[in-house]
Amino acid sequence: MVAGADDAAAVAKDTDSGITYHNYGKKKDEGQGAIDFIFLSKETPVDTYRIIRDTVQDMYPSDHYPIVADIHI
Fold it and tell me: How many helices and strands in the chain, by DSSP H and E?
C-alpha cells in the first residue's frame, strides 16, 4: 500500500503520534505506534493529522481512537 501512497501522519505539517488501538483504554502507549492510517495519493498536501483521544462520559466509543487529517484535494 505504501509504495503508491503516502501516510497522512508522515507528511502532515502538524502531526500527532501514538497508538490508535487502545482496547477501551486498557492498552497503554508504549511506543507500539499506530495501526490505523489515512493513505493519500502521493504529493497530496496535509495540514494536520490528529488522533482523537476523547471519551464520552468516561467511556470510549470504540477500541480504536479515531484519526482525522486536514487535506487539500
Answer: 1, 4
pLDDT in tens, 60-73: 999 999 999 999 88
| Share of the chain residues as helix, strand and coil, in percent rounded to the nearest 5 | 5, 30, 65
Name 51's bridge partners. Answer: 67
Query: What does the radius of gyration of the chain's CA atoms come to, in whole angstroms?
Result: 13
Residues 21-53, buried b or exposed e (16+ Cβ, 10 A)?
Answer: ebeeeeeeeeeeebeebbebeeeeebeebbbee
Q: How is residue 45 annotated by DSSP?
A: -
Question: What are the residue ranges spanned by the domains of the chain?
Answer: 1-73
